[in-house]
Amino acid sequence: MFLTISTTGTPERPATDLGHLLHKHPEKAQTFSTSHGTAHVFYPEASVERCTAALLLEVDPVALVRRGKGKGRGGAPDSALAQYVNDRPYAASSLLSVAMSTVFKSALRGVCAALPERADAPLPLRIVVPALPARGGAELVHKLFGPLGWTSVEARPVALDEQFPEWGDSRYVQLALEGELRLCDALRQLYVLLPVLDDAKHYWVATDEVDKLLRAGEGWLADHPEHKLITSRYLSRRWGLTRQAMDRLELVRLAEADDLDVEDVDNAVDETTDTEERPVPLAEQRRGAILEALRAAGASRVLDLGCGQGQLVQALLKDIRFTEIVGVDVSVRALTIAGRRLKLDRLGERQAARVTLLQGSLTYTDKRLTGYDAAVLSEVIEHLDLPRLPALEFAVFGSARPQTVLVTTPNVEYNVRWETLPAGHVRHGDHRFEWTRGEFSAWAAAVAERNGYEVRFVPVGPDDPEVGPPTQMAVFEKADKTETGKTGKTEKTGKSEKEAKAA
Ligand code: SAH
């Protein structure tokens, strides 16, 4: 069972970075034992220009049978011998998915401490799986991988026997995917779609599989035209689980399609019970609070950092005082949807001149982001792993340094007020953390202190006397702004001016 991942590079961005992203050194061949065999990772080529990582899984078919699993595969004749003579050792299946999740665990999560910005950015990829069992054939392979951002999806049917072409094709295809994707997205797609195409799992599918599916499906599954087939096959057609997964995907979709966050779906459910009117969704309240703060700050040139699908950019465009609006996001997909929402191709010349969408990572300093009046980070910081926050802090407060920075994030204390949110759960699958008011204000105060800003806090949404508001917003103002319009003040000066004012 075999899978290769290749990328290309340049001296500035060497292809061998793949080793960092996969957490496997290109100069070593490594072996891991998995539940059903041995996985090997090695690099058939590793140069600055081209690098290929190979995952080879040797399955022990006898062990597979002894474990009492691996049987009942659709299509295999039900004889005693079929247990031993079957395709499991070479066909890419759930066994390979499980091996991937063991061997490339961090890469699947998109975590790479050494090169975080590389892990966050799309890279040129070519992925080959030489023997992929495809129930539904090449046609289904295209339907499944086609909508996922690959520039080329090739599924070449493998002949039953090359010596006897008249026997026709087997149900295996050779899969080759090419395109620019984040490595973690590519791996997550394979992790889900290999067993879906095989239409079998070598283990009993329990309830935790729904979580696994939603985690691995983050960002691509909800909108996939075949999400129903994928969900049902992934969950081995267990109807109850499939129903559960479909409901949760529906929430994700609502959140994406209708300007709502997942939290707002909960919000709406929560509040319609005691009021007749449709409550204002939290996302809308948040945008209202942000617009108000931007107007109060007198900002006209605004960055929306982590703009997602462009709802705030759209709201900013409606107010002519915002003369220049730049939306930045790491997700090409989000930006594509934002572009569609804003109808960029149909905007008049003057409107179009006001708005720009940029792809970029906020954990990376970026000259394009300097010289603006204000930056908004709306519901973005909680999508970053905590150890990456200092990099974001430096990029925004140290390098871009706008006069005003607005940061919103969920207040985790409020979560108990959402009836539909199970205890201890965060509001969105991709939230790496959610902070209490104390944690957020401690972080914000330290950021302000380190970078020469002053900070105050504004509640967004109903401010509960016990647990506070659902969203917390920090408003940072550059400390030296109020004194003079001049530039070149050091952070120290800013601080002593503040002290002087206080005196
Ligand atoms: N600001 C929007 C979207 C919030 S969702 C709103 O308030 O509705 C978080 C967004 O941050 C996602 O679109 C995600 O792609 C983006 N994001 C996460 N990490 C990022 C990074 N390192 N650089 C740029 N954008 C990032």
What's the arrangement of secondary structure elements?
Blueprint: E1 2-8, H1 17-22, E2 30-34, E3 37-46, E4 50-59, H2 61-66, H3 94-103, H4 105-109, H5 116-120, E5 123-133, H6 137-145, E6 152-159, E7 169-181, H7 183-198, H8 208-217, H9 227-234, H10 239-257, H11 262-272, H12 282-296, E8 301-305, H13 311-317, E9 324-329, H14 332-341, H15 349-354, E10 355-359, E11 374-378, H16 389-400, E12 404-410, H17 437-451, E13 453-460, E14 471-478, H18 491-502
Helix pairs in contact: 3-7, 7-9, 8-10, 9-10, 10-11
The chain binds S-adenosyl-L-homocysteine (SAH).
Brief account:
With 503 residues, the protein is an alpha/beta fold. The protein has helices at 17-22, 61-66, 94-103, 105-109, 116-120, 137-145, 183-198, 208-217, 227-234, 239-257, 262-272, 282-296, 311-317, 332-341, 349-354, 389-400, 437-451, 491-502, and strands at 2-8, 30-34, 37-46, 50-59, 123-133, 152-159, 169-181, 301-305, 324-329, 355-359, 374-378, 404-410, 453-460, 471-478.
Question: What descriptive keywords fit this protein?
Answer:
c-terminal autoproteolytic domain of nucleoporin nup98, 503 residues, seven-stranded antiparallel beta sheet, binds S-adenosyl-L-homocysteine, Rossmann fold, disordered C terminus, globular, alpha/beta, 3 domains, seven-stranded mixed beta sheet
